[in-house]
Every structure is written in C-alpha cells, then in structure tokens.
Amino acid sequence: MGSSSENADGTPEVIVLIRSKEDNTENFKKFYEVVNGETIGSFSKESFAGPFFSQYKKDFKVRAKKTVDISVDVGIICAAKEDHEVNSMRKAARLTTEIFKEVYKSNLMETIDADKKIRHVKMSALLEDSLKDQRKLLGIDPQHVEPCFTPIIQSGGNYNLKYSAQSDKEYIHFGTIICYLGIRYKNYCSNMARTMFVNPTEKQKQVYTTVTDCMDHIMEKMTPGTIISSLYDDAKAFLKKSTNPELAEKIGKNIGFGMGIVFRESALVISPKCEETLKKGMVFNVNLAFPDLTNSEGKDEKSKKYAISLAETILVQDGPVVNLTAANRRKTKNVSIYIKEASDDEDSDDNLGAMPETTSRGRGMRQTSLASNKRDHDSSESRRKLNQEKLHDQLNQEAKERILENKDGKKEEKRKKTNVSYKNSKRVQNHHFPIEREIKDGKIFIDKKYETLIIPFFGMATPFHISTLKNCSSSIEGDYTYLRLNFFVPGSAISVTKSNTDGPYPDSAVEGSFMKEVTFRAPGQTGAATNLNNAFRVLKELQKKFRAREAEAKERAGIVTQDKLVLNQNRGAPKLKDLYMRPSISQKRMQGYLEAHTNGFRYTAQRGDKVDILYMNIKHSIFQPCDKEMIMVVHFHLKNGIMIGKKRHIDVQFYIEVGEITTDINRTSNLRDRDDLYAEQQEREQRHRLKTAFKNFMEKVTHLTRDMDFDLPFRDLGFSGVPHRSTCLLQPTSSALVNVTEWPAFIVSLDDVDFVHFERVSFSLKNFDMVVIYKDYARKVSSITSIPMTSLDAIKEWLNSSDIRYTEGVQSLNWGKVLKTVLDDPEGFFNQGGWDFLKADDSASESEDDGEDENFKADTQTGSDDDDDDDDDDSDSYASETEPDSGSDDQSLGSSEEEGMDWDELEKEAEREDRGRSNYEDEDRSGNKKRKGDSYGNSSKKQRRR
C-alpha cells in the first residue's frame, strides 16, 4: 500500500518551494510540515556561506531536530552513472591526459634537456594555469573545467602519496618524479598519476613493470557483481607471487575509490572492509602507491630513496573495463627518460643499450629523450600501420557479413503505381473519357483534370498521360506551324538512369508497341495552328505542375512520421533571438527565434512560419563559435529528414552574423581613426556578448534534456578541402567531420564510415583527394578534393586515433562501379581479397598499367562527384555512373592509335632536328605524348609545374 505522499506509480511526490530573497521563515514552516519526522537526513560534511544557509541553520537549531549523515547512502545510489554522466567523465579524463602530455611532460622534458631548475610548486602552478587556456582544452569552454585538487609534483626522495599532499618549494630532482593530476568537467571528476624515471636502473624498471602488471590484473577482475574488497585481496596476492614480493607489504590501506561529482566516495573505497559490489556504469580511481622504496645504485642520496604511484580512471561495464586515461601509456618505456652527457665516450653510449639515437637540444651539453618520444618520428607511422593492419583484418570480414545479412533481409521495393488516365473509352464512373468538340473535330485536346494529352492518331482519339511526355517544342517554319512531341519509351534514357519505380511504364509493358515521336503541322493563321499553339502552352504548364508535384511526393516518400512537439509552458524556456535559418523557409531571408521545449526545438520566423526539430531525431548537434569566423552557428544533423518548404532536409542550422560580411573597398582607413577603433571595440564586445548568450542557451538545453550535448569542432585538427564547390575548413568533432559555416553544410558521421581512401597521393603533387566510403555500400561516397599534401599525416593520425581504416593510392577510382561490383557479388569480391587491392603498399603497382583495378579507374573526361550537389537518390547516381557510353570503344581505339606519330609528324620532327633545334622541344613532345594516356586528367601545364 503506497503512502499518501507517493504518486500513483509509486514515485515520491515532489513539492517545489520558491525561495524568497528576503525572509524564508514561511518556506521553512511549510518544509517542516511535510518533513515532520524526528530524524532528518543531511550531508553533515557540506557547509555553505550565505544568508539563506545561515537562516536555515538558525531555524533548524530552534526546532531541535536530530540529523543523520546520508552522504554514504546517496553516494551508493548515484555510483552507477547515466550515459550523459559517463560522457562528461570521458571528457574530463581526456582533458587530464591532454594536459599531462602537452603541459607537464613537455615542460619536464624541456627542463631536463636544458638542465634548468624549476620548483615543484612552480610546475604545479603551470598545470593549474593551463586549465584557463582554451587553446589547451581541446576547444572545451574553460568555464566548465576546474581541477579536482591542486596538482601534486614530488621528487628527490621526499614523497607523500596522498591526495591531500602539497607540492613543496624544492627544485625538481632528476631522479624519480611523481605527478598527480585530476580535472573536473561539468563537476565530474577524473584522475591519473604517473611516475617518471630519469636514467632508471634495471631494478627500478623491474619493480615498475610489476606495478603495471598488477594494474592490468586488477582491471581484469573489475567486472559487474565483483565484491570491491576482493580487488584489494587479489592485488595483494598478485604482488606476493610476483618477482618483487616485498611490494605486497608496502601497498597502501586502499588501492582506489569510486568517483563522480564527489572526488572520493567514502562508501566505495577499494579496501579489505568494503563489501559493496561493482555495477555497470561505476567509475573508479584505481591507485597503486608504494612509498619508501630503495635504489642502491643511486648516484646521490636523493636518488637512493624513491616511490612509485600509478593511478587510472576506470569505467566498469559489461565485459572488459574501459581505461579512460589510457591515452597516456604507462609502460616502462613510456615513462623512462634517459640523459647522456656530451662528454661521455662511445663506451658509455654502448651501455645505454636499446636507447635510440637522441637529438641535441637546449645548451647542447645534455641530450635528453623520452623513450616513447625518441622514436616518435620513425615509429609513429609504424604504430599507425600496426593499428591499420588490425583494422584491415576486421574490415573485410565485417563488410562481408554486413552485406550478406542485409541482402538476406532486404525487403522488396514498393513499386510505384502506373498512371492510368482512363480505364477504357466508355464513360465509366470516376474515369470519364472526354467528349469535347475538339476531339470530334480531330484536334489536339488537353484534359487538365486527368492530366492527359489526347491526340488524333489515324483518325482515332488516343490518350497519353502527361508522365509519358518527355518534352515538346513548337516552331514556325515558312507558312507552317509545327508541334513536335517526344515520348518516353522502354529502353530510353529514363529506364537506364532511373529505377523502374520512377519510370512511366511497368516491366510488363516492354513487349508492347510505343510511339517515340510525333510531329503535327498546320498552316499559319488558321484554327489548326491556333490549336497547336494553345496545346503547346497548356502542355508546358501542365508538365511543370506535374513534375513539381512528383518531385515533392518523391521527397515526402522517405519522411518518417514524427511525434508532435510538446510545448514548454514555462516562460523561462531557453531561447535565442535574431537568428537566421538555413535552409531558408522562404525566398526572402528573415530572422526568427529558436526555443527549446520539452521534447524538441521550435524555430519561429518573423512572419509566423514554424519548424519543429525533436531531440530524438537529432543525430549530431554542433556549435560553431565565432572565433575566426563571421557567423556563429548551431547546427543539427538529423537522423530522418524533415520537410522544409517542398524539399526534404537532414541538415538544419541557425546562425547569427557577428561582423561585417561585406567591406567597402573604396573606403579609406587610418590606423588611428577613432571611428575604426570604436567599431572594432564594438565588434569584440558583440562577439563576447553573443558567445555568452549561445553558451547559456546550450547549458540550459543540456540541463533540460540531460542526454544532449553540443559538439565543438577542433579547429587545431582542421584542414582545408573542397567537399562541394568551394574550398572551406573541415574540422573534426568527437563524432563527425564537419563544415557548418558554408552552405550546404558537410557532415560525415564517423559511426557510418567503413573506411577512407586517399587518391592522387604522390610526392609530385601538392594536393590529394579524400574519399569516404560508408558502411552502407548502396550510399554514395563523399569526396573531398584539393586537400594540401601537408595535411596528410595529420589526417591519418586523426583517423587512426578514431579507429577508422584508411588506404591510399595514386589512382582515382570510379567508386560507383567499385561498389556496384561489391554489391552484385559480395562473396566473390571478398573471396578474392576484398579491399586488399587498396592497400597503401600496393600503391606503386597501381601506378603501372597492369594494375588489377584497371576497370575502376575514373574517366578523365568526367568531373568530380563533388560538383553534383543535388539530392537525387543514391541509386540514381550509381545508375548514371554505370550507364553505357555509346562510342566508348571507339574512343579507346582512337586513343591507342594516337600514341604513335603519323608520317607528317615524323617529317616535322626530322625537319626540326635538321635545323639544329635543342632537345628541349623533343622532350616536351615526348611529355605531351605521355600525357595523352594519363588517367589523372591533369593538364600538361600542371604536370610541368609539379
């Protein structure tokens, strides 16, 4: 039996009291009328400053209520994180690893390399100050970022392995250096700890390896249902059986704790006393700390005493756990720094063993290298190749299984109903054959109601539906007026370039007889000529309306019915004003406002037009700030298209201009002109004001929806290219590759990408092309052309970090034919190696004439796919690419004959040689001959420049 304070579904009733700015005595009275028990739960360790809290404590003291601390119970309830909480902790961990690598590790390397002196507290301050620098925060707003604790730096034998420790004012000792770094993102915590060794001894490396192995062992045991105390026991048992059993006695009283909004959940400490069980969604800080270790081989007193601390942020889930701070690798080679004195002889160099060649920097007296960084230049490519090989092994198998599964479960396409003007020539209900006078007189008649053209054919009135009419033309030649009608027939272009569902004839009609063209002639200035002119005019109007209606119906065919928008009656609903929308609702550009409601957004234009976008239909929500841009954009990439006007769109964006889009070039300016300085100041203030408004809007939306987050493009990872018709900056986000400042927008969702292929990759070229192949092979590929060659390595690194397979080659492929071949015979394609022919190692062989993918080379006369900016179906695009080209055989024969020179050319060449001309022209001619067979389609001038 539910209590009176519960709702019908058993959930507690929530009563909201509006706080008064002056006196809250009445609110406290109402509060205690509902909460009338003798004991009240509270967070005893929490204390706040302010008049409201002071009044609350005073009122509570008068009522003499008993309190009990519920911090532990609430912590256990909130331990399993929701998806949006996990995403925040992932970002926090990513920031932690980024700051550790780019700030701490780089500064430490520079300090050691230059033999500088820097205090522990100074290094700690550098780390804390970096959290205010947006350039180091991966594009994340610094307002959402703060440290969990003041970063802790320790070295020189003086170690306090607690999170309450403070960095002292001693200088960093180049021996064993420990760093604790924890960062919050939107109040959610992350933490990591690393121990760096300078010239470690073999014993130190052996001990550290045991610690990392113990960490791996603990992570393997962290599965849902495991009792937390067993993790501590397993860790201690592992250390006792290791090659360094003395570590089991030095391990701390606990080896970690649960994390969330609270940095340390006291109820989830990994210790022998905790009997709670692990659950999916819990996040732990696993910390292995070993103080008071001795190094008998230390060169000084500070080096003879050291400690090891290793901490990771671990997410528990079904199956293996996820190490959120794994980006900073913890193996011995990744935390070892080697110093070689310049005065050392070759024998001392040999003692370094596996230490790779170092690079002299700083003062030149010392050479320093981190084991992982020493080989970065040479091994970054090898690491990418290893990961790419692993991804390639999965690519063929997963693609084959995916295609066969889709092929088996593929539903039969719904065929379009054939247009029928009249069922027969008699007067039947709902299909009346007209009996107008023009028909009896043998003239052309247009039935607008049934959209039918009726023409006299051998004295018989013959109807043709407007869908069968391809085009019509009217002309006057001499004393006669001509009307020419061209009809679609089976086997014509419409049947080749479009599917049968779009054609005017069913498959069964192929065996019938059809009229392809008919011409009518009438003497000028007669009633018959007037009839032809009127028929031409009406046909054009009717054909235009029919095609517009068919195009709109085709757009609506793929529309998924959406739920209705539930309006938020609260006046404080998040709102952005003075926004433009793309695509535009009307021909004239107009402003409007965007509101966030219960289950979606609503954009309302000035004249009252409305566009609704539901939260559940949004696949990517992107915020493009106005930094180095003239507009600020909120962009939504949708899962299912919506109708705006008469077209279907999956990309909708709202933007505001923050600067002058146009500039008066005739206007003279002066650096000291007060008006110009004032205008610049006004623009800066406007940018700041608008940026703040947009960020407040997004924060309110995130709080309202709880699971929606806006992605910010990473400008530092951006590269220029041509996805449509103009060059723009393409920027990665956490889940997509985007450009939202130009229109149409370009969005590639990384979850939909199967692999990426780089075309025209050659040292002799300045640019290359990037082709994105989607997991749905029936979908048209996305091409980005004219990417600078200098961006290739950065793009590869980004794709590799996103676990996306990439290949490269010098050829440009006809991807329509390639993917059609795969879909027609997937088993045969993958049994012959699948995508192995695209491997980068084979790029040299692809440039030769005997390459196995000769049939897939792109036609040099065809333009890039990027020039096609329409919304045609993918099947249409592939069909058009595979359309047989009449005369293609003749062209190929002609090109082969042109490879040699005829007699006239030979005679001219002989004359030039006789005249004693230089060999320059001969070489140029041979170059021209070679370029005739070039499959790239580049001009000879471009070839010479490159």
Model description:
The structure is a single chain. The chain has 946 residues and is an alpha+beta fold. It has 6 domains: 1-69, no CATH class; 83-377, Creatine Amidinohydrolase, CATH 3.90.230; 437-545, Roll (PH-domain like), CATH 2.30.29.210; 558-661 and 673-706, PH-domain like (Roll); 713-883, Pleckstrin-homology domain (PH domain)/Phosphotyrosine-binding domain (PTB) (PH-domain like); 889-945, no CATH class. It has 25 helices and 34 strands. Strands 23-22-21-20-26-25-24 form a 7-stranded antiparallel β-sheet. Strands 3, 4, 5, 6, 12 and 13 form a 6-stranded mixed β-sheet that branches. Strands 8-7-9-10-11 form a 5-stranded antiparallel β-sheet. The longest helix has 33 residues, at 376-408. Residues 719-809 form the Histone chaperone RTT106/FACT complex subunit SPT16-like middle domain. Residues 843-853, 864-888, 896-908 have a biased composition (Acidic residues). Residues 373-412, 909-920 have a biased composition (Basic and acidic residues). Its main location: nucleus.
